[in-house]
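Appendix B, example 12.
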Amino acid sequence: MRFLLDGETIAIDNADPTGTLLDWLRYRQRRTGSKEGCAEGDCGACTVLLGDVSGDGEGVVWRAVNACILFLPMLHGRALMTVESLAKDGALAPVQRELVERHGSQCGFCTPGFVMSLHAKAIGAVGTVDVLVEDVLSGNLCRCTGYGPIIDAGRALTVEPRDDRVLAARLRALREAPLAIRYDDPLTGTTRQAFAPRTTDELAELYIAHPEARLVAGATDVGLWVTKQMRVIETLIFLGDVADLAGIEESEAGVTFGAGVRYSEAHPALTRLHPELGELIRRIGGTQVRNAGTIGGNIANGSPIGDTPPALIALGATVTLRRGGERRTMPLEAYFIAYGRQDRAPGEFVESLFVPRPAPDAVIAITKLSRRFDSDITAVLGAFALTIRGGIVAEARIAFGGMAGIPARAKACEAALIGAAWNEATVEAAVAALATDFAPLTDVRGSADYRLRVAGNLLRRLWVRQHSPDEPVSVLDPVLATHG
């Protein structure tokens, strides 16, 4: 595998497919500026910038990512920048200078990560253009509570575009070499192998040949299997180079997303579909997670608390699966069968997702509830898509995450609404029906009682906002107000 570090080619002949970039930086390169604070992509202390050739082939598109859960082979054919890359000949980079002048560092442990996230904004990296500094830093935590000076430093920065034409040419040359790794672990004796196909045809052929392989797009979940659970994954197929999984096609009917489209790339198109979708994407992880995680990965993973599936189900999305040369398309809600089970055969993968364009008069509300606003896992996510004609609920699609072992529709709740007058009595009947739809679990993120109460309150809040837009949420239930 080959990549560029500060413009210099790095060649690694015996890369561990599940070795992390952070470990390589700290233990092999002695670039100890990048810190391990959490090893799960949550704190941002390990933030680095990755560069890919731009769509026109003439420049480099940079994005901030977490090095702690990024597998080293995912760098193949890319450019890397760490905090050590910034200061040149004793002169600080603008972001470093602003942080020094504004006293933006306290204990200093998290500082390199903040530096890299703000440097990403200073060079116009993905997910930072016309974005508030606070949102750019959503994936960086400061345990000294020193956010004020850091945010001030970010606001003082001006965007200075880079001329990366020479770098892009070098990256194009590196990308011509395919990536296939076989690694014999000297400690366990386990043989691990990894592949990086370039097309969906290659991917389909590989996955048929290796149905036991783990498909890895952003590694925002699989990375934790390695860093937290110490799991050994023997065969991996990296999807980052499959160009035809990264397409976005917009039409009057809706938007089709390739499964490899990252959240940060999907954000503009989803916002154009409906602002509530855009706000939901803004709440997924931090900037680094949105720059790595993919639409297809969130679906294929099948998590009951995945953020996008409930909203996409409510909007009537369909998913296309591929196995070899065969494809099949199904409603997204049909893909999820039970906890840990999806309607996907060995060798079959999520290829694309279609999201219909909502009707102009559709009533849509999507709410994520979590203990903190930024970079947190969902307790309950409710998504509502209603059509109301002449004061009657003509159509209703309601889906929740965090209420069952899978993201699922609230069909009894829908039935209580459809054909009934859109009034408070109907809403209360629909809220009562939620107890038929779901029997939530109690866990660290919330009790079963909390989840049922808050799910009902989300529907009540939708009705209140339709009839009293200025009514404060807190009149509904203290539980919703506290956790919203």
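The chain has a mean pLDDT of 93. The radius of gyration is 23 Å.
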